[in-house]
């Protein structure tokens, strides 16, 4: 399946716990002030890639701990990302995603067309919420501003409300 990418990082240690393969999608409408990656906003920017090619690359690296879906806004392309997340899980990898939406917004806005629930169902961790410049801190683990949360997604889906992961600090 086609996916629009900003880029890939095949051995990242800054996009979540352990050694990770990071997929940066192209396109974002959140317009957070101070965004770390403004070149990822234009939905017509970046380049096309096939999810099979990305899955091959993930499977080729036996040292990975997990896969991170970042952007841009990953939930604009939830369907191809669900394929990648599914293959990662099959390979025993954990899957983490970043989003400018809150968990509550994703649950409320989920529908058949956007595939948000299906992608959430494949995630272990979700860093949610827009980047807020006034709440920025460099002391935070894997998140840019204090309003963002690192959520335990299986637990959050189970109880129907956002549950913080133990790595949220
Ligand atoms: S959600 Fe992320 S990529 Fe989008 S504007 Fe905010 S910080 Fe930038």
Mind explaining what this structure looks like?
The protein is of the alpha/beta class and about 170 residues long. The protein has a domain at about 1-10 and about 20-125: TIM Barrel (Alpha-Beta Barrel). It has 5 helices and 7 strands. The protein has helices at about 50-60, 80-90, 105-110, 115-120, 155-160; strands spanning about 1-10, 20-25, 45-50, 65-70, 95-100, 125-130, 150. It has a 7-stranded mixed sheet with strand order 3-1-2-4-5-6-7. A hairpin with a 7-residue loop joins strand 1 (about 1-10) and strand 2 (about 20-25). Helix 1 (about 50-60) packs parallel to helix 2. It is globular and about 40 Å long. The relative contact order is 0.16. Iron/sulfur cluster (SF4) binds near residues 35, 72 and 130.
Descriptive keywords:
alpha/beta, 169 residues, 5 helices, single chain, TIM Barrel, binds iron/sulfur cluster
């Amino acid at each position: 399946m086609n996916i629009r990418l900003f880029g890939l990082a095949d051995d990242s240690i800054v996009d979540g716990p352990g050694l990770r393969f990071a997929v940066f999608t192209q396109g974002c409408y959140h317009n957070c002030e101070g965004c770390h990656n403004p070149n990822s906003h234009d939905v017509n920017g970046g380049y096309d890639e096939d999810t099979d090619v990305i899955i091959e690359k993930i499977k080729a690296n036996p040292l990975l701990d997990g896969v991170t879906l970042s952007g841009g806004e990953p939930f604009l392309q939830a369907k191809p990302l669900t394929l990648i997340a599914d293959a990662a899980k099959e390979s025993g990898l954990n899957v983490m995603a970043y989003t400018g939406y809150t968990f509550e917004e994703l649950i409320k806005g989920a529908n058949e067309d956007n595939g948000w629930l299906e992608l959430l169902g494949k995630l272990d961790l979700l860093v949610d919420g827009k980047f807020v410049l006034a709440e920025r801190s460099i002391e935070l683990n894997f998140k840019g501003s204090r309003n963002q949360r690192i959520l335990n997604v299986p637990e959050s889906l189970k109880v129907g409300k956002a549950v913080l992961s133990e790595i949220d600090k």
